[in-house]
Amino acid sequence: MGALAPNSAEPAGEKTGEEGMKNHGAPTAAMAASQASQAPKLDAGALFVLKSKGSWLHCGYHLTTSIVAPALLSLPLAMASLGWAAGVVCLLIAAAVTFYSYNLLSIVLEHQALLGRRQLRFRDMAHQILGPGWARYYIGPIQFLVCFGAVVGNVLLGGQTMKSLYILEKPDGTMKLYEFVAIFGVFMLMMAQLPSFHSLRYVNLLSLFLCLGYSACATAGSIYVGHSSRAPPKDYSLPEDHQDLIFGAFNAMAIIATSYGNGIIPEIQATAAPPVQGKMFKGLCLCYAVVAVTFFSVAVSGYWAFGNLAAGTILSNFIASDGRPLLPRQFLIVTNILTILQLTAVAVVYLQPTNDLLEGILADPKKDQYSARNVVPRMISRSITVAGATAVAAMLPFFGDINAVMGALGFLPLDFVVPAVMYNVTFRPPVKKAVFWVNVVIAGVFSVAAVVGSVAAVRQIALDAKNYKLFANV
């Protein structure tokens, strides 16, 4: 990444090529002063939700919570659609490309901050670099849908995990899935009242240990079951039908993209106290150290133990078809509790862009953050948002299929394509430079993957449509 240091290129519209790359140490005082007027005026959302008080460690905690989430428990399913070689390669490529892309976004944001126009939101960043149309009609709506979809998905998964605990204790219990979704929603309602992104720093530190915990449990559980006498027959063969093979592979890529997806890099970097130079890179290193430990261990061990029988979440594989657990009951209870607790933290993190938007509209930046004028609208708006997400999760328990579409249409462009485009537009690296072509290839390849992945995800919805039912008890 040495060629991509934050101070290694000139801003768009000024010097390019070798001369610009050499002379851009830091903007002069005159340049910073002339650009400062372009900085957006801070509204209540930026002042209250996106407070810039954090360290690089706090950025690392936020990044880890937003990326290393229970979605990684679906990675064995993705491996089942790709096979051993392609599955491991896709995991490695996704890790390398997302780390690179997130670092690109961070470099562009640091560059904007050096010029006196620090951007705190993805849509503001897009407005400055790509133009107002891209911010208003693409980046803003896509980010909102991805983040709200992540909240809905986490509430649903929280309800499903709570139901798994209930079934372990009461196999003949009569409570329905939507009841557990509602219970999880009430817990979310309380967590959503934490006032700012920065106020989640210790919650997200705990979340880091929680994800390490349930990932270790999932890995150990898979190894235990794989060696037990009750282990299912291991079949690693791929579909013989070429159409099923191709669409399955792209659907698996959408799952992997969703697992590595973030979509809120600018908002996380906004929490860092100035100067921001280098803080996000350190945070990314912390995050991807956790990614290396968790993603690959869960994916490989789960696929090894269950092969083509890997379920949508590997925890489901720990319960036999006859309802009996394949692992000690206490072990499953601990694993599920760790998962539930981290789901809450993940959902609250992805709620922040919505909180920022609503606070910017409803709150008064001239009043104190904790004045009645601002607290009452905050509590009402956040409660309505969480209630809406809970209602959608309860009504549409097949939301995982819809989330695959959103992953292909949202996470792939936001996390794989847009960073490369923004870097090239901002710094204008010469065509003869490798960084230019690396970014062009990444943007091109993953744009195609986003389109095909969307088609594959929609096809999966069509195949599963016969099982869809509002408030289904799945």
UniProtKB/TrEMBL annotation:
The main location class comes to membrane
Where composition is biased (Basic and acidic residues), the residues are: 12-22
**Keyword match Membrane:** yes
The subcellular location is:
Membrane
A Pfam family reported for this protein in Swiss-Prot or TrEMBL: Aa_trans
Q: Does the keyword Signal apply?
A: no
Q: Which domain of life is it from?
A: Eukaryota
Q: One GO BP annotation here?
A: amino acid transport
InterPro entries attached here? AA_transpt_TM
Where in this chain does the record put each Amino acid transporter transmembrane domain? Answer: 53-458
GO cellular component assignments: membrane
Q: Which parts of the chain span the membrane according to its record?
A: 84-109, 137-157, 177-195, 202-225, 245-265, 286-306, 331-351, 379-399, 405-423, 435-458
> Which UniProt keywords are present, listed alphabetically?
Amino-acid transport, Membrane, Transmembrane, Transmembrane helix, Transport
Which residues lie within the region annotated Disordered?
1-30
Please report the name of this protein according to its UniProt entry: GABA transporter 1
Query: What organism does the UniProt record list as the source?
Result: Apostasia shenzhenica
